[in-house]
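> example.struct
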């Protein structure tokens, strides 16, 4: 997938911005605070429905603006071009595909694939479990379309069970809870099977990159924890947890509590990794996910590298560039100047200043 055009209005400091990126490596240069990262954020927003920065979608709105919009034309490997957009007017968000309102935000996400390595990417390794669940589920949304249906069923049943648990009293009995628990168990077991299969397929792709960036740590592996004790099936676990869940007012077991942990032969605990190693580990995971996406879909997602020169040393910058140059992949890179690893490479450069983006010859 490649962006043929990207139009941004009312996003942080960007307003009235139109970018026509090249199909290869695009570098956005400018001073700190000029809006470089917000260009990448716009692309990511179309692919994930949220920013990679902390905070809600509400903080994306430019100060003083009442609306926000990001529109793009994206071309698939088969030559098909789709027009996609996400906008906010007042408090309402709306996704559009080819001029029509999208059935859901998930439908938009499935049309646009972007992976991003940025200063907060180490949270994939060191952060909360929801970061890792989103990582796996985003990959599944793109390569296993049946997964989204299971995910929606599970979220709906989870919401209903939690509402009953909070109501308490007579509302919490077998007749009211059993149908939602059966739905939770059915959709949840399916979700777990999809996630396990995805991680099994992902692991060799991640290992191929990990062996290059962290060879000193030995063999890399992943352990998935589904969110409940699998010595008992999920349906039985939900029943046995009713009283505890009612006291807490929410469902404490299930795929919404799932997580995976990474281990290395010579660093069995996450705490054994330095911050730099966490970043390299996250980078390998993101590139591995992009590689698996390409294997299954026949095309690479767009790869965004925010502030590359600050996040990686010269050796690893050159390694990343070498990995991407040999593939048919569109890349967005930001920096206060062209990263040294790209100075002698064929790149398209854009200058970003005070929210304006200008292509440089």
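> example.seq
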């Amino acid at each position: 997938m490649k962006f043929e055009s990207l139009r941004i209005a009312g996003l942080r400091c960007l307003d009235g911005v139109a970018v026509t990126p090249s199909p290869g490596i695009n570098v956005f240069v400018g001073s700190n605070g000029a809006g470089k990262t917000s260009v990448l954020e716009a692309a990511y927003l179309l692919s994930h429905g949220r920013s990679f920065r902390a905070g809600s979608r509400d903080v994306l709105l430019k100060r003083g603006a009442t609306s926000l919009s990001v529109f793009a034309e994206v071309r698939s490997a088969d030559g098909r071009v789709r027009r996609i957009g996400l906008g906010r007017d007042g408090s309402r968000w709306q996704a559009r595909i080819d001029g029509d309102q999208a059935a859901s935000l998930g439908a938009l996400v499935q049309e646009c694939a972007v992976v991003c390595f940025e200063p907060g990417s180490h949270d994939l390794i060191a952060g909360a479990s929801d970061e890792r669940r989103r990582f796996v589920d985003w990959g599944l949304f793109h390569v296993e379309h049946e997964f989204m249906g299971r995910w929606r069923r599970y979220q709906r049943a989870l919401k209903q069970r939690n509402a009953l648990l909070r109501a308490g009293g007579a509302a919490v009995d077998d007749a009211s809870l059993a149908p939602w628990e059966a739905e939770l168990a059915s959709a949840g077991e399916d979700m777990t099977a999809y996630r396990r299969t995805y991680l099994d397929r992902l692991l060799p792709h991640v290992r191929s990159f990990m062996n290059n960036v962290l060879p000193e740590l030995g063999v890399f592996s992943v352990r998935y924890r589904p969110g409940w004790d699998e010595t008992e099936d999920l349906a039985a676990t939900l029943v046995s947890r009713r009283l505890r869940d009612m006291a807490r007012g929410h469902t404490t077991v299930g795929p919404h509590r799932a997580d995976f942990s990474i281990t290395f032969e010579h660093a069995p605990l996450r705490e054994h990794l330095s911050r730099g190693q966490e970043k390299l580990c996250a980078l390998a995971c993101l590139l591995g996910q992009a590689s698996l996406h390409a294997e299954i879909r026949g095309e690479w997602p767009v790869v965004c590298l925010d502030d590359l020169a600050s996040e990686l040393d010269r050796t690893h910058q050159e390694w990343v560039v070498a990995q991407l140059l040999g593939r048919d992949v569109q890349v967005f890179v930001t920096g206060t100047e062209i990263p040294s690893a790209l100075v002698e490479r064929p790149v398209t450069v854009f200058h970003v200043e005070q929210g304006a983006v200008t292509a440089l010859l």
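> remarks
The mean pLDDT is 93.
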